[in-house]
Design goal:
about 375 residues, alpha/beta, Nucleotidyltransferase, domain 5, 2 domains, six-stranded mixed β-sheet, five-stranded mixed β-sheet, 13 helices, 13 strands, about 35% helix, globular, binds adenosine-5'-triphosphate, binds ligand AH0, transferase, EC 2.7.1.170
Length: about 375
């Protein structure tokens, strides 16, 4: 067995809330140890620039083009990642021991149906910043981890299932197990013993709730699900929303952050609802979308492990229990990390990329064969 490497994962998710940094020790097959993690929060002007970049990306067909706000956003994003790493090394001086850094970047457009997925983030630029922080030889840096899968005909997402599978090996919970990541978009990994994990995006997680709360209250989340808890779910609106053809499609399938934006504007009737009822209806939508994937799975899952920011929303967890009829636990409760799981996954994926191991599989992204990915920036040779 190869020796475990210290790997750092850097993730900027669809919520646009900050850079998650996490250290793990892994050989790319199993996890030897979890290290510390931190979130480096974006400022309001960063978030505004990234929102503008998402808009500028909407009509792109060339993944290397950076029109409008995209060029400035890519520079800012790379700078914030360098600052996040510097803050991490300041708190945890492990920089000489780190072998590899996995850099996800920020997805600004995801259109796998036309073989297009675009993550901004300057890999060589971040590698230069890392070299300025760490004495030679320094770590390898792996970036652009979705491109190879999409080029080969896969969905390019979700990529975390191979990490979920590695973590699940250490658990003794009743299976089948469903790991649910509740970021801006929700994705699941279904794990039943040694069978290949099945994965897909299920629908919105927090992005619609965040956008609704931002528009109605000026605060970009429903903290602790308080508004939703005080509201009434509009079941008729929910039923209309669930007629979207995405839900009838079998996995693998994936989403762009904004895929449901117009659909919700046209079908939810949110303008006529109170803040509480709107939040309740959108929170129920997130839970119902996970419910909508169950008929596509081989067996009903027995246990659901919720990770990502949405796992901090007790109303959402309650709706999941009620609508799915499964036991719901948080990642923290099973000894994983609710907040650092995705960043850890990109450290894990970076080690797999270094070793040439597959990142994605026919059952996770629909790629025709298991495939590795990522672009590797090698460290400078030792002086
Ligand atoms: N205490 C809380 N109560 C309610 N919602 C919360 C709470 N904490 C975080 N969230 C939600 O979680 C979101 C952030 O989740 P997370 O950091 O997992 O997303 P992400 O990694 O950016 O997204 P993705 O996984 O889609 O890439 C916030 O935007 C917010 O909606
Ligand atoms: C294209 C893209 O960036 N997709 C993200 C997004 O955020 C959640 C969901 O949609 C998931 O498919 C994916 O991220 C996770 C980390 C993944 O690839 O597993």
């Amino acid at each position: 067995m190869p020796r475990p490497l210290k790997a750092i994962g850097l993730m900027s998710g669809t919520s646009l809330d900050g850079v998650d940094v996490a250290l793990i020790e892994t050989d790319g097959e199993s996890v030897a140890a979890f290290g510390p993690a931190l979130t480096f929060a974006y400022g309001e002007d960063d978030r505004a620039l990234f929102v503008a970049a998402l808009e500028a990306a909407r009509t792109l067909t060339d993944r290397d083009a950076r029109p409008g706000a995209l060029a400035a956003a890519e520079g800012r994003l790379t700078e914030r990642h360098a600052q996040a790493l510097a803050a991490f090394f300041e708190q945890h001086p492990v920089h000489r021991d780190v072998s590899v850094i996995g850099f996800h970047g920020q997805t600004v457009l995801h259109r796998p149906e036309i073989r297009l997925t675009i993550q901004i983030g300057d890999g060589p630029g971040l590698a230069r910043a890392v070299r300025a922080m760490v004495p030679p030889p320094g770590p390898n840096l792996v970036y652009d981890l979705r491109a190879a899968d999409v080029a080969a005909g896969g969905q390019g997402a979700p990529l975390v299932p191979v990490y979920h599978r590695a973590l699940a090996h250490g658990l003794s919970l009743a299976g089948p197990l469903l790991v649910l990541n509740l970021g801006g978009v929700a994705n699941i990994t279904y794990i039943d013993g040694e069978a290949d994990p099945i994965a897909c995006d299920t629908g919105p997680a927090n992005a619609l709730i965040d956008d609704f709360m931002q528009a109605r209250t000026g605060i970009p989340l429903d903290r602790d699900g308080a508004a939703a808890a005080a509201g009434r779910v509009d079941e008729a609106a929910l039923a209309r929303l669930l007629t979207h053809p995405f839900f009838a499609r079998r996995p693998p399938k994936s989403l762009d952050r904004n895929d449901f934006r117009e659909w919700v504007t046209e079908h939810a009737g949110l303008d006529g609802m109170s803040v509480a009822d709107g939040a309740a209806t959108l929170t129920a939508l997130t839970a119902a979308c996970v419910g909508a994937v169950l008929p596509h799975l081989p067996k009903p899952p027995r246990t659901l492990i919720a990770a990502g920011g949405g796992a901090h929303n007790p109303t959402l967890l309650r709706f999941l229990r009620a609508r799915l009829g499964v036991e719901v636990m948080t990642a923290d409760a099973v000894g994983w990390s609710t907040d650092a799981l995705e960043a850890q996954a990109f450290g894990f994926l970076a080690v797999r990329a270094l070793r040439g191991l597959p990142l994605s599989f026919p059952t996770t992204t629909g790629v025709p064969r298991p495939i590795t990915g990522g672009v590797i920036e090698l460290p400078l040779p030792a002086a």
